[in-house]
Amino acid sequence: MKAFKIAVLPGDGIGPEVTKEAVKVLEAINQQNSTFAIEFKEFEWGSEYYLANGQMMPDDGLDQLKNFDAILFGAVGDKRVPDRVTIWELIMPIRKNFQQYVNMRPIKRLAGIESLLKNEQAIDFMVFRENAEGEYSNIGGRLYEQQSQEMAIQNTVITKQGVERIAKYAFEYAEKHNKSKVTSATKSNAIIHSMKLWDEVVESVAKDYGNIELESNFIDALAAYFVMRPESFEVVVASNLFGDILTDLGAALVGGMGMSPSGNINPEKEFPSMFEAIHGSAPDIAGKGIANPIAQIWSAALMLEHLGRPDLSVAIVKAIEQVIQERNVLTPDLGGTSTTQEVGSAIAEKVKHLV
Ligand code: ATP
Ligand code: MG
After folding, report:
1. 264 bridge partner residues
2. How far is the CA of 324 from the centre of ligand 2 (A)?
3. Is the CB of 65 under 6 A from ligand 1?
4. CB of 281 sitting under 6 A from ligand 1
5. Are 271 and 7 spatial neighbours (Cβ–Cβ below 8 Å)?
6. What is the value of pTM for the model shown?
7. 282 CA from centroid of ligand 2 (Å)
8. Ligand 1 closest atom vs CA 83
9. Cβ atoms of 13 and 282 closer than 8 Å
10. What is the pLDDT of residues 41-100, one digit of tens each?
11. Are 110 and 259 in contact (CB under 8 A)?
12. Which domains are present in the chain?
């Protein structure tokens, strides 16, 4: 049996703390289940590496990663390093060069999670965020003749090909999972060039999926609907910026930042896909051992699904759910008093009985 080869980039802040627990759970499965083998190689790239070497990863960093089956990523961010560097010299090059143009972010309330909302209905939908273009571009700059007239221009890039592939991915997913509706986040009433093209392309893709309804909502209204009727969503497709904002909002509905996983997917599987919690390095709690590792452990579950082991992925989510429902071992964000490591170990123990 061939072992899956995983590149582990723990990163900064709570990144290494939660990633260690995700690896612990994967190793528990490795020990328990003879049909599964996994190997890890760790790369200490991130802000410390930058402070020592003047760059976030070595020049041949992407080459070193490209033959792995997947990447498990912690988080990057450090107040001593500009965001421009942490984002644009590590995460973005990986996402762009490995053509991870789909960012999948499940918004699912697990059993036992108390909601901020009165609504007790199930919240379980998938957001597909465009991950390679859109509003997060480094095109733009400052223009001025005199300091007092300083202005900044930031360009959004929306391409027909870019929208087509993310929209297709969302509709394919909907079809495969027997969903009846895809919701598109737009703002073409005010952002009249780029979002207009977004709408046109999404509508044209939708025509190929006769059984699936396309609902198109302006982002402002959609944000409100997320709170008012989260149970009504099945699949949401959104641009880079809109998807980013919507999924933090979605995370808040299902237990917070510590409960929200993601995958950066290269659907063609030509390059490794990358899995990470949607939260950042959380400097406010880093080093205290209280970060919730569930988002990162769940991200590892998404990774196993991508690698063709949905059975093991489901087992991890079940193990997480059991630990939450027992309420004995939880981090403070979920109302408990346990540490990151204790939660990781509890989930690793549970999963052994499920695989
Ligand atoms: P970055 O600049 O790296 O994005 P940030 O300051 O934006 O970091 P986030 O990591 O996005 O911080 O977190 C936002 C808030 O959510 C913080 O108050 C943080 O403590 C909390 N938080 C994030 N992740 C977790 C987690 N895994 N467990 C508990 N709390 C978390
Ligand atoms: Mg953040």
Report:
1. 103, 274
2. 25
3. no
4. yes
5. no
6. 0.93
7. 7
8. 2
9. yes
10. 999 999 999 999 999 999 999 999 999 999 999 999 999 999 889 988 999 899 999 999
11. yes
12. 1-103+261-355 (3.40.718.10), 115-254 (3.40.718.10)
Pocket probe for ligand 1: among 18, 279, 331, the residue whose CB has the most ligand atoms within 8 Å is 279
Closest ligand 1 atom, residue 18 Cα? 27
Longest CA–CA span in the chain (Å) reads: 69
Rounded Cα gap, residues 26 and 11, in angstroms:
19
CA distance linking residue 244 with residue 41, whole number of Å: 29
* Percent of the residues in the chain that have a pLDDT greater than 70, as a whole number: 100
* Residue indicated by tokens 């499965």: 29
Dump strand ranges (E) for 166-282.
Answer: 181-186, 213-218, 235-238, 261-265, 273-277
Q: How far is the CA of 282 from the centre of ligand 1 (A)?
A: 4
Name the pLDDT band for 118 (thresholds 50, 70, 90): confident
ipTM: 0.93
Q: How many residues does the structure list for the chain?
A: 355
344 CB under 6 A from ligand 1? Answer: no
Residue among 160, 163, 150, 155 at smallest CA distance from 138: 155
Q: How confident is the model at residue 116 (pLDDT cuts 50, 70, 90)?
A: confident
Q: Is the confidence at residue 337, as pLDDT, over 90?
A: yes
Instruction: Say whether 308 sits in a helix, a strand or coil.
Output: coil
